[in-house]
Structures are given as structure tokens and as C-alpha cells.
Known about the structure:
This protein has helices spanning 2-5, 12-16, 62-69, 92-99, 117-125, 133-146, 162-175, 192-209; strands at residues 20-29, 36-46, 51-55, 77-82, 85-86, 102-105, 180-184, 212-216, 228-233, 236-237. By secondary structure, it is of the alpha/beta class. Strand 4 (77-82) and strand 5 (85-86) form a beta hairpin.
Amino acid sequence: MLSSLITGGVTASAALEPCVKLEGLNHWYGSGSxxxxxxxxxDLTINPGEVVLLTGPSGCGKTTxxxxxxxxxxxxxxxxxxxxxxxxxxxxxxxxxxxRAIGMIFQGHNLLRCLSAEQNVQMGADLLPGxxxxxxxxxxxxWLRAVGLDDHLGKLPHDLSGGQKQRVAxxxxxxxxxxxxxxxxxxxxxxxxxxxxxxxxLKGLARNQACAVLMVTHDPxxxxxxxxxxxxxxxxxxxxxxxxRLWGADRLPDGGPAAVES
Length: 262
């Protein structure tokens, strides 16, 4: 299934440039006496084809970091370069264009309630150039089959369980064949078998399309897919963003909800 869904590659020159490079990144919420720093001096580089897991306690800034990398928030201080584009000082139009190359999986699912599972996933395929309607529809169906929802193509979101909605959201993100995938607890609502199938899909995407993956997780069952595990506490990367190749913890902490630029 992976070989039929995940194909292609990148040029050698594209593979040499980091997909993500953060330098001295700082971010605050609130103003005046209520101002609180949530990202503090973060440096992080993620290369094409690399899978990086981001761990840490709830409220430490993991999801905020994802939304900054995903161009869903405007950068306040420091440098965020994604595919070579500097997001600090970027326009809304530049961020919107950049997001077409980024797949995003957040816990809120963000499915359109009036569209079926198939139609929601086809929205991801619609971002691919040169595909006709039938090809995009067939691609959507293949990704839904890959996440175990081939019997739910025509169902609306309100007819799906939480785990099924999460799988639709994952299929939609993968259908766009992104160059960078950002995922916030993608296996949180999934059973062990489905969670393993999903992360294997993500790993295959990273390897076969040189897609960089940055994933927030507390799930110890999926640590083996990572090239690096990076830990965050109080808005800082405590390992300097270099991470660990092996992780010995029995349990990883939860992440928080996603927020999107208005």
C-alpha cells in the first residue's frame, strides 16, 4: 500500500537544504502584566526525510511551536525559515502560499461538517497540480483505505467516532503529498494497531518523498519511528534541539490544543 501511495522524490539540491530552521525563536501571549513568554530561545533544524518527535509536559509550548513552523501564527522574534522562506516579517499571502506545501494534523480534526469523509480527504488532493477530478477522487479513496476507512467514504463527520475523524484528518494531510508534515498527537484517539499503521504511513512518506515530519506526541509506542526525540520544557528545548536517538522513558507527557491564525 505504501509503495502505491507514496512515490516520487526530491532533487539532490533540495535534499541538502533544511526544511525547517529555527534560530533564537521567542513568542509571547497576552500583553502588559499578563504577558507570558511561551517560546524561549528555540533553535531547531529539521532536514528532508527526517522524523522528529517533540515531547514535553502539557502547556510547555509544543503546539505553539508547531503553529509557528506551520505559518499559522506570525513570528514575533527570531528566525523561522521553512523551505528557505523567512517567516519573520512575511505577509499573510506568503504564509498562505507556504501552507500549500505543509500537511497539518491537529487534534481538533478541522473537518468540514457538510462534506463526506471522501470529500474532506479530496480537499488535500485538490492541492496537487495537474490532477483531474477522477484522479483526485481515486487518490482520496486510496488514502482512506490506507487508514482503514474504506467502508466509511460517504459518511459525514457527525457519523464518525473521534478516532475515525482523526484518521480522516490524517488521510487528508497525506493526500496533499506535503514536503513538511506537522502533527499534534496524531495517535491520541487511535488504538494500538491503527496508530502503528498511521505512523508507518508517516515514516514511509518521510523516507520516500523526503518529507520532513515534526510530531508532538506522548505515545511511547511510536518512538521507534523517530530519527530524533526532542524534549521541551517551559518553552525551551532542553537538549538544544539536537534530541536523542533513543528514548528510555516509560511515558511521555500530553500536548495541548491547537490554535490557528485568524
